[in-house]
Design a protein that fits this description.
With 118 residues, the chain is mostly helical.
Length: 118
């Protein structure tokens, strides 16, 4: 009976806590932080007068490169310009010809006659 009371009165150990620390590896952020550290080191060396970086020709590979969206939009713009020029030329030839004026005059002349379409 004494063992039974010892079991009830004895302190129960607390369960071990769960300390999960997620491991997430972001290579872009790591590379970004490395670049920042490198630039800070270069800046500090420049301030001391020891090092002068040479950026000549570093960004020329990015000049003139277009994204696929920019290429697609350029195609749309060219097509739109071609369609508009064709419509403008068609309107110019249509309104500059005398056939339209002759047709309109003939239409009104038919109504001017007393034995016309009244």
């Amino acid at each position: 009976m004494a063992n039974f009371f010892d079991i009830l009165t004895r302190k129960q150990p607390k369960p071990r806590g769960f300390n999960y620390k997620p491991i997430y590896h972001n290579p872009e952020k790591e590379a970004f932080n490395e670049r920042i550290d490198k630039l800070r080191r270069e800046r500090d060396q420049i301030a001391k007068g020891e090092y002068r970086p040479n950026f000549k020709g570093k960004f020329t590979s990015q000049i003139g490169k277009k994204t696929p969206f920019q290429k697609q939009m350029a195609g749309y713009n060219i097509r739109l310009i071609l369609i508009l020029t064709i419509i403008c030329f068609a309107a110019y030839f249509l309104f500059s010809s005398t056939k339209i004026n002759d047709g309109i005059n003939h239409f009104f002349n038919t109504f001017d006659q007393k034995n016309g379409l009244y």
